[in-house]
Each structure stands twice: as C-alpha cells, then as structure tokens.
Design goal:
single chain, alpha/beta, 6-stranded mixed β-sheet, about 35% helix, globular
C-alpha cells in the first residue's frame, strides 16, 4: 500500500521499467518521462498534488487477469493508493479467451461499482497520445468542469434534457 506522501508532486510521468514497448514509444516521440520500478501501477502521472496511477493491459492479458483473479487483486491495490485510478485496455475485446460481453461487463463494473476510469485504445500509439493528454491536464482546472452544466452544448440545452 502506498502513502500519499510517497508520490512526487511536480508535473511528471513515470513509467514502470517493465513497460519496455511503452518506454520505447515515448522515447521515439520525445515525450518527457522517467523510468523506474513502480510499487503499484504501470504509469504514474502527477501535477500540483494530483496523482493518477494507470494500469495498462493488452486485451489478452485483461482476459487472463479476470480468469486468474489478478484483475480483482490489482484493483484493490490501486484503490488503496489514494490516487486517481485509470485502466487502459489496448486492443479489441473480440477474439479473447473471455467473450466480449464478459470483458465489457468487467469494464462497466470497474467504472460504476469501483469508481475507476477505464479507457480502451486501439493500441500503443493511441495509449501514448492519451497519456500525453492526461499529463497536460492532470492537476489543472478544466473549463466547464462544474458537473452537468459542463455537458450543455452551445445550443444551451436545459439540465433536465441534457441526456436526451
């Protein structure tokens, strides 16, 4: 279990040293990052006291981690960290050892029941782009982040019909 004061608070991206293909991708794109062994998660992004821990999984590993129980255990460890928890699932849910409905159900349970973010990407290229955007945004004030009102369009929909 991590204590909040174990995170470094300046803006940075730290990649676990076992994430070889991601490290190479970020290097090739000249993305500033540090490489070190992380006690939990695959990526840590922090700024102004906000910390996100990201667990990155290919869909084949995602499916097998559900079967062998790692999925539940990892979620518990990440949740105990006190950080914002984000899963990045790379690839299609189809053609895995678990059916797409099972994988989709695990994603929805993680978001709705466990209050963790899940982002599905096509692959490493998309993952890199999303990590770079998160690094820019974490710890900053985002315009229009006041709940439902931020969902209103320029046509000024009313709050009671915003989801229609």
């Amino acid at each position: 279990m991590l204590k909040k004061n174990t995170f470094i608070l300046s803006k940075q991206m730290i990649i676990d040293d076992r994430e070889h293909d991601l490290i190479e991708r970020l290097k090739s794109e000249n993305v500033p990052h540090q490489v070190k062994r992380l006690p939990v998660g695959d990526i840590q992004i922090s700024n102004n006291g906000s910390v996100a821990l990201i667990e990155r999984k290919r869909t084949d590993d995602f499916a097998s981690s559900i079967s062998d129980g790692r999925w539940r255990e990892q979620k518990a460890r990440l949740s105990a960290s006190g950080a914002i928890v984000i899963y990045i699932i790379e690839g299609s849910l189809y053609g895995q050892s678990k059916g797409p409905e099972t994988l989709s159900s695990a994603i929805w349970n993680t978001m709705l029941r466990d209050n963790m973010w899940v982002l599905q990407t096509r692959g490493l290229e998309d993952t890199s782009m999303h990590l770079q955007q998160l690094c820019k945004k974490i710890g900053t004030t985002i315009k229009g982040s006041s709940g439902l009102k931020s969902l209103l369009s320029k046509r000024k929909r009313k709050e009671d019909n915003v989801f229609q």
